[in-house]
């Protein structure tokens, strides 16, 4: 098999199935840890520091703090869909249009609707 | 490395940004019509904006060797006043045949209200009537999941629109499968805090592949980075993707979608 034929065969294999390549999925756990552990550690500390800062602050909190606390346990669930689960936990449910809109901007967590 | 920035709001960016993008390898930009950060007070404000998108910005881009394309609409943040939205939409036929216009966009939803949905569906009808490509904005943050489901449901009620001629942008982990499973193009946007970062975008590509997907910075007047795709390129190389694969995502895919418009010129 010539080098050219081999190259195109490998390309065809790379691109077959799953709508394209799946190359990135083949990384080892150690390579992911080497690449991303420190960044994840720092992000986790940011969340911890944010919650501490919030506790030290004065006055009332609101639904956003509750939303964050609700999704944190999802980080410990099994499988590889934690990001989806957290995003869904921070989203409005259903497909019905909103009738109550107070602002143009979203805030990152679903606000309990007034009755 | 070369790339196409298919969704960026250059009217908000300085000429320095055009220069830096060109120096970084940007070959072409696509600019959907969007919210200016404030509600415009008259239809004439939109006429000026459409002229800016179709006359002035292409000239700015050309100074740096880039083609500039645009999309026309009234964005969902200004769609609550239905009468005003209708007046703005009546301008679109006047501009739609200009040489850098690719279609209708970025239409969609913001807070998922009934009026936003009405104007979104009327834009879809207009796109069908004028045989135009469609570029769709999905809502932000907590509104994205519901809004994306509403948008896909509405699209399914317009079977005259071929799915391969519709791109639903700003997808994240929880909405990407909804869009792709329905057969539409999916867009991913790299933002510093909201939307996706490069690593998460590549995670999605790892799982779903490269078919019918584009990536963009959607840089505008807010905290955003018109060079975000260069960061993605670097991260893809670190993750083991080769030059051809990166080119497929950042050049061939946007060309494949945009070249369905007769106004799109070959690179």
The count of DSSP E runs of length 2 or more, i.e. the number of strands of chain A, is 0
* Helix and strand composition category of chain B: alpha/beta
- Largest interface: which pair? A-B, 36 and 42 residues
Proportion of beta-strand residues of chain B: 15-25%
Which sheet architecture does the biggest sheet of chain B show? 8 strands, parallel
- H/E order of the elements of chain A? HHHH
Q: Give the oligomer, counting copies of the same chain as homo and different chains as hetero.
A: heterodimer
> What integer is the average pLDDT of chain A?
82
Secondary structure topology:
The complex is a heterodimer of chains A (115) and B (267).
Chain A: H1 3-15, H2 29-56, H3 63-71, H4 82-89
Chain B: E1 3-5, H1 15-24, E2 26-32, H2 43-62, E3 67-72, H3 82-89, H4 92-95, E4 101-108, H5 114-130, E5 133-137, H6 144-156, E6 166-168, H7 176-181, E7 185-189, H8 198-208, E8 213-216, H9 228-238, H10 243-258
Parallel strand pairs in B: 1-2, 2-3, 3-4, 4-5, 5-6, 6-7, 7-8
Structure description:
- The complex is a heterodimer of chains A (115) and B (267).
- With 115 residues, chain A is mostly helical.
- Chain A is built from 4 helices and no strands.
- Chain A has helices spanning 3-15, 29-56, 63-71, 82-89.
- With 267 residues, chain B is an alpha/beta fold.
- Chain B has 10 helices and 8 strands.
- In chain B, strands 1-2-3-4-5-6-7-8 form an 8-stranded parallel β-sheet.
- In chain B, helix 7 links the parallel strand 6 (166-168) and strand 7.
- The radius of gyration of chain B is 17 Å and the shape is globular.
- The two termini of chain B are 15 Å apart.
- The model of chain B has no long low-confidence stretch (mean pLDDT 97).
- At the A-B interface, helix 4 of A face helix 5, helix 6 and helix 8 of B.
Q: Which structural traits does this protein have?
A:
heterodimer; A: 115 residues; mainly alpha; 4 helices; 0% strand; B: 267 residues; alpha/beta; 8-stranded parallel β-sheet; 10 helices; 43% helix
């Amino acid at each position: 098999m010539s080098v050219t034929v081999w190259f195109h065969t490998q390309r065809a294999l790379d691109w077959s199935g799953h709508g394209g390549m799946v190359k990135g999925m083949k990384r080892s756990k150690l390579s992911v840890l080497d690449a991303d552990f420190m960044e994840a550690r720092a992000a986790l500390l940011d969340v911890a520091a944010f919650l501490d800062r919030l506790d030290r602050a004065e006055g009332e909190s609101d639904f956003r703090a509750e939303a964050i606390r609700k999704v944190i346990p999802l980080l410990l669930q099994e499988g590889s869909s934690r990001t989806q689960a957290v995003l869904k936990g921070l989203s409005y449910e259903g497909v019905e249009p909103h009738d109550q809109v107070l602002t143009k901007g979203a805030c990152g967590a679903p606000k309990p609707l007034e009755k | 490395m070369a790339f196409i920035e298919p969704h960026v709001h250059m009217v908000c960016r300085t000429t320095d940004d055009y220069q830096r993008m060109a120096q970084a390898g940007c070959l072409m930009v696509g600019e959907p019509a969007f919210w200016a950060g404030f509600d415009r007070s008259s239809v004439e404000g939109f006429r000026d904006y459409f002229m800016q998108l179709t006359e002035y910005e292409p000239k700015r881009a050309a100074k740096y060797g880039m083609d500039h394309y645009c999309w026309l609409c009234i964005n969902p943040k200004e769609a609550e006043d239905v009468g005003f939205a209708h007046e703005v939409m009546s301008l679109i036929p006047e501009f739609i045949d200009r040489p850098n216009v690719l279609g209708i966009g970025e239409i969609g939803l913001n807070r998922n209200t009934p009026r936003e949905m009405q104007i979104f569906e009327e834009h879809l009808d207009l796109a069908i009537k004028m045989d135009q490509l469609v570029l769709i904005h999905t809502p932000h943050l907590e509104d994205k999941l519901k809004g994306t489901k509403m948008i896909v449901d509405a699209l399914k009620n317009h079977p005259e629109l071929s799915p391969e001629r519709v791109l639903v942008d700003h997808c994240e982990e929880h909405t990407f499968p909804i869009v792709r499973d329905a057969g539409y193009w999916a867009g991913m946007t790299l933002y510093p805090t909201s939307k996706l970062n490069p690593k998460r975008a590549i995670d999605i590509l790892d799982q779903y592949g490269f078919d019918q997907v584009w990536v963009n910075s959607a840089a505008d007047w807010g905290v955003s980075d018109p060079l975000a795709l260069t960061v993605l390129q670097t991260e893809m190389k670190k993750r083991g993707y080769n030059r051809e694969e990166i080119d497929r995502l950042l050049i061939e895919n946007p060309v494949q979608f945009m070249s369905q418009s007769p106004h799109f010129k070959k690179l």
